[in-house]
Design goal:
This protein has 4 helices and 5 strands. It is an alpha+beta fold. β4 and β5 form a beta hairpin.
């Protein structure tokens, strides 16, 4: 069994996005192949490796692609997603259970991350709202303090005016008494 077939079986059985395979013939009569894996899909299943795998051959593009596929399969095996007992095609055993456990863990982590992001956004919005309300309250307090200081000054003035008013009332009473006394005495 070739590495390309192993790679296609792994992609099919694990439900991964298929990799992009490209090759070119260079001027020095060598073939250069590049296999680029879809990291978002592959890492969610537990893949740990680089994005691109290359292979070169002086014989054919197919040989270069096989070399690149060999690199991908070996990386999958090192990541623990595949166990290949016989590279000739006798036995290909996928660790599907482990892959599904890793996928579940990744999903839980993603859900927890999303929940934390929602809570952070909520708290950030509340913080902004509370800061705005705090500013408004500080403005109100400043205005009330200003009014209170003005009211204290007005109370002093009112006290002075009332004292002056009482003095004037006392003088008016005295004058009325003085006016009323001569009239009573002259009769």
């Amino acid at each position: 069994m070739s590495y390309v077939k192993i790679l296609s079986q792994v992609v099919d059985q694990l439900g991964l996005k298929p990799p992009e395979i490209a090759y070119e013939k260079r001027t020095n009569r060598t073939f250069h192949a590049v296999i680029e894996v879809h990291l978002a899909s592959w890492t969610s299943r537990g893949f740990r490796g680089s994005r691109e795998f290359t292979g070169t051959s002086t014989i054919s593009a197919r040989k270069a692609i096989r070399k690149a596929a060999r690199g991908v399969v070996q990386r999958l095996e090192r990541s623990g997603l595949v166990q290949i007992n016989d590279f000739n095609g006798q036995d290909l055993k996928l660790w599907k259970k482990r892959v599904m456990e890793i996928a579940k863990i990744c999903k839980k982590v993603a859900e927890e991350r999303d929940e934390l992001e929602r809570e952070f956004t909520f708290l950030q919005n509340n913080c902004a709202r509370l800061l705005i309300e705090n500013g408004k309250m500080e403005e109100k307090i400043a205005r009330l303090k200003k009014k209170l200081s003005g009211a204290e000054a007005t109370e002093e003035e009112n006290g002075n005016l009332m004292a002056e008013n009482n003095e004037l009332k006392a003088e008016i009473r005295d004058l009325k008494k003085q006016l009323s006394e001569p009239q009573n005495g002259g009769l």
